[in-house]
Amino acid sequence: MRARLRWVHLILGGALLMPYWLVGTVVVGPLLGSGNMFSNSLAVQFGAYGVALPIAAATALFPLARPVSVAVAKALCGVPAELFAEGPARSRAARLRTSGWFTLHVGIGALISGATLALPPFAVSLIVVPFFPSLRDWLEMPHYPAWQLALFPFAGIAMLIALAACAAAAGALLARQAQVLLGHTPADRLAAAERRATELAERNRLARELHDSVGHALSAVTLQAGAARRVLDSDPDFVREALAAIEETTRRTVGELDSVLGLLRQDDDHTTQLGGPALDTLDGMLARSGVPVSLIADGDLAAVPAPVSREAYRIVQEGLSNALRHAGAPPVSLWIALRGEELEITMENPLPGRAPAVRPGGGRGVRGIAERATLLGGHAQAGPEGALWRLSARLPLAGRR
């Protein structure tokens, strides 16, 4: 089945060369003294063939030639689809490869097509002519001895086998070259790698948003619910405040979650800017974080560019989540300051008396903070310093995004 499809592919190549061949006969015919473009002269026919191939190669330099060639080769060459490059040929190397493939396709296809048209009738005639004397007379064949006529059928069968073998070999050659000439060029691979890197970076960015937003909310809600449960009978006013904080936290988090999920559905746009809370909403988050926080702000935080402000908010949020998760709601000291062209964030909280519980996989909060800072061209680090856990980040105001 595959060999038959490749044979069809070769015949299609011969058909595609026909317009170029007709142009070639117009050029070559007068040069060889033939006034008939359909001359039976082999010199005219092969001369036109030689002129047609460069013209075909030139027309295949157009970018859209590659997707057409790829579509045909996928269907008829039996080559896995993932080995072909997608889209128009943009680079010079890709256009030259496509031109080489098209020229090879139509050039070999024309030869196989011509042989397919001419050889079978001749071979069949050789097979049957020994059995029909009248056919020999009609063909005006010379007299051959009987032993020579007995060889004619074998010669005809050999021609048909040779034609099939040549077609199979030519089809296999085209299939091998399709992977090279219609496959991915270095520029294609680089572009694909850049697209994958962009998509992966966007996925990681959305994952950080979900982790920081939902993780902080769950930590705060867990702490507030636990505290309310312990004083449920003795301090109803505190329970009401805790439930109000839980309600506000979950409402805000649902809104943030809906925003991120909406971006995930936008499959055709991987560069959409994330919205979300920024430093101007920091007071509300600190008041309901479940951690006592002393904030010292130095500078006009409202002047911080929006991308940097959003990332700074998430860094603070993740720092508070870590304090809740690992230290059990200790007092936290937070400094946010504008220093020239940078925003500095420093957060400290006492280390717990016991070793913090370690989640399977080690958690992703500190790593996410470092990634956020790096993507903006800054840096962040976190770790124990004496009896304190210290988080520090420096974010350029002219962030990369």
Automatic annotation (TrEMBL):
Transmembrane portions of the chain: 7-32, 44-65, 100-129, 149-175
GO MF terms, alphabetically ordered: ATP binding; phosphorelay sensor kinase activity; protein dimerization activity
EC number: 2.7.13.3
Domain Signal transduction histidine kinase subgroup 3 dimerisation and phosphoacceptor stretches: 202-268
EC top class named in words: transferase
Domain of life of the native organism: Bacteria
Keyword NAD among record annotations: no
Keyword Nucleotide-binding in record: yes
Catalyzed reaction equations: ATP + protein L-histidine = ADP + protein N-phospho-L-histidine
InterPro entries according to UniProt: HATPase_C_sf, Sensor_HK_TwoCompSys, Sig_transdc_His_kin_sub3_dim/P
Full protein name: histidine kinase
Originating species: Streptomyces lunaelactis
